Amino acid sequence: MHLREVTDGNRDAVRALRVRRDQRQFVASVSLSLKQAAKKPETRPWYRAVYEGEEPVGFVMLMWRPPAGPFQGRHFLWRFLIDKRYQRRGIGRAALTQLAALVRADGGTELLTSYEPGDGEPWPFYRKFGFEATGETYDGEIVLRLALPPR
Prior knowledge:
Blueprint: E1 2-4, H1 11-15, H2 30-39, E2 45-52, E3 55-64, E4 75-82, H3 91-105, E5 110-115, H4 123-129, E6 132-138, E7 141-147
Parallel strand pairs: 4-5
Antiparallel strand pairs: 1-2, 2-3, 3-4, 5-7, 6-7
Organism: Streptomyces mexicanus
Pfam family, one: Acetyltransf_1
Protein name: GNAT family N-acetyltransferase
């Protein structure tokens, strides 16, 4: 598993990635994510396609230490999806491990994310990875924190 930039050459394949029907309420599509990133440059969006070999299998997007707003100066996992055909293979865990390493290498001591509660929510996945609830909410979503102690 590795991360690649989204380019004109792979944009259509990455935009075609889909989660399962029961997961759609919890994560926006890649197309919408890219539009939001373009509309909100102040959040310093950083996004990559998740690849397994030469096949795009997922998408990640972070707010990379935005200079203002509720996550000012912090790394926030804004979008995270693995295509329905590639779930339950450890790809999501590997991608999150790589993201955490990148954030740590950038001097980050934590990685934040959020989720909308509901039946089939991603909380069990994040909890198993080591995220903890912060007690905060953002835009109706529960904010989670993964501590990244220095190595």
